Amino acid sequence: MPRHIRFPRFCNIKLLGLVISLSSLTCLIAEEGAEEAKRNFAREIVLNEDDVTIFPAMPEKATTPQDNIAHGKLEGFIYTSEIVGTQRKATVYLPPSYNEESSYPVLYLLHGIGGDETEWSRFASPDVMFDNLIASGKMTPMIVVMPNGRARKNDRAEGEIFSKENVDAFARFEKDLLNSLMPAIESSFSASTKREDRAIAGLSMGGGQSLNFGLGNLDAFAWVAGMSSAPNTKPPEELIPDPQYAKKQLKLLYLSCGNKDGLINFSQAVQRYAKQHDIDHYWNVESNGHEPKEWKSNLYHLAQLLFK
Ligand code: FER
Question: Is the pTM higher than 0.90?
């Protein structure tokens, strides 16, 4: 066996060509995801008679800080992710009364395709909203965990956000959530481990994740909410293969989407199926697009329904 194999020069050129075509292919696939997203956002919107706003508007003062009430805490949380093999970050809200002697229900609140563990706190001031709702007796004190739903080594929202790698990482988060994050939260905080005390909700990619993971694990979650759910949402027959079981297990199914959002057909399909199969649900359609004010408003409404 020769110790050194010398490739003739043309082979180097071929190799270089192969590397270039492989990287262009990767770019093409990534661009394809972005192109498909553009097509999805541009889908025709057909509104049905059920597609209406069902709540009074969120008051303007919902996220105005008040001095004369008790305040909760927003803090960073780091856990070891078995499936990703890294230390991953989450943001945790602890309610004003939080103490180790009580046991609190937990809401897992998931972000969209361009977000991370800071997204909800950047646009919705959830800590102020929850402090205000809890102070006025409208919300059950709960722990709210805002994880990073992109289960991959580099979990920052960088580069081609619609690439297959990123979309796959949002699906992979199911295992990270169930096997690593939930046990870490439950051993670090006074968190109830009963399914009746666990909720999962999210916006867009996080809405799809919440419906997929929540409805797919009704032994772990009883409260499930998808806001402006993205095309990662499984088809309704796959999401809810056994409507009788879902009816028995669900304490809440909450669906919402803006009536100017091209992705509304994904939520409409789930809503129609829930209605056909007589599964109780909330369906809130406000006059918004795919945008933060839609999600902030629905967080305000949803927070008042959970764990009651
Ligand atoms: C898509 C359109 C939108 C898609 C994802 C999204 C995976 C997600 C949007 C968001 O999270 O805001 O085609 O494909």
Answer: yes
